[in-house]
Design a protein that fits this description.
With 253 residues, this protein is an alpha+beta fold. The protein has two domains: 4-98, no CATH class; 146-252. It contains eight helices and eight strands, in the order αββββααααββββααα. β3 (39-41) and β4 (48-49) form a beta hairpin. α7 (192-215) runs antiparallel to α8 (226-252).
Length: 253
């Protein structure tokens, strides 16, 4: 089962494919077969195969096509209809089903903004949501009621803040462990790259908190924000790194 947005996109792609290959397909064993040898599954979102670039193969396909339609041989002028080799090698192939669904998902993201993932679903600030899997069927657009939009936006930013804090804590814990291990071995912790990543995660926490404050004024009344604590902790980490490097220099003297 496909959601409405994806179904519409696939229908447009299929209509384009049918037009490119002359239309008027004949049905056989779940497939729609065209005069030039192109075919596709009858089911929307199924397999698709364009015409063979070899003109001889297309002629053979045309003969089979007309036999399926009850004609002993193709009508005059069919060679011109199925075209030359160049006319088909220049036609870009239709995207696969997965590619088509991915394009629809990307367009959905573009229309609704940056999502936050939670338990296999992507949630958006405007209240939209979809399955993380592009082929998912659970899709809901922005609600019309303003109260619902406010409520969902509040949930979105709370969720985004929770995810951001979890990622930050996980990264910080890994850096702390690396520093401790380096101290035990009298080595430089070498965490510059990880600290850059940690800074990006900290900025995401700050952004999420600011977004939450737009919908939850009480968030401003909370004790020291995480962004301040994060900066303090990063300063501590930097001091630990410098200390570890100084100890290493002493050993090299």
């Amino acid at each position: 089962m496909l959601n409405v947005t994806m179904r519409l996109h696939l229908e447009q792609q299929v209509a384009k494919f049918d037009a490119q290959n002359g239309g008027d397909p004949v049905y056989k064993d779940g497939k729609l077969i065209f005069e030039n040898g192109a075919w596709r599954d009858e089911a929307l979102g199924g397999r698709i195969c364009g015409p063979d670039p070899n003109p001889k193969v297309r002629v053979q396909a045309a003969v089979r096509y007309w036999k399926l339609k009850g004609h002993y041989r193709p009508p005059e002028g069919f060679e011109e209809r199925i075209g030359s080799a160049d006319s088909y090698t220049s036609v870009p192939p239709l995207p696969s089903r997965h590619e088509q669904l991915s394009l629809v998902a990307a367009q959905f993201d573009k229309e609704h903004g940056e999502p936050v993932e939670f338990k296999g679903k992507l949630y958006y600030e405007d209240g939209s949501q979809r399955d993380k899997n592009p082929a998912g069927v659970s899709v809901a657009n922005q609600p019309r009621d303003n109260i619902d939009r406010q409520r969902i936006a509040l949930h979105y930013w709370r969720l985004r803040l929770r995810v951001a804090e979890q990622k930050f804590e996980k990264s910080r814990t890994a850096i702390e462990k690396q520093i401790e291990d380096a101290k035990k071995l009298n080595r430089s912790p070498n965490v510059d790259e990880q600290l850059q990543t940690l800074e990006q995660l900290r900025l995401e926490v700050v952004k999420a908190r600011q977004g939450l404050e737009k919908y939850d004024p009480a968030a401003n009344d909370q004790p020291p924000t995480r962004s301040k604590r994060d900066r303090e902790r990063e300063a501590e980490l930097s001091q630990e790194i410098e200390e570890a490097e100084r100890q290493l220099e002493k050993l090299n003297i």
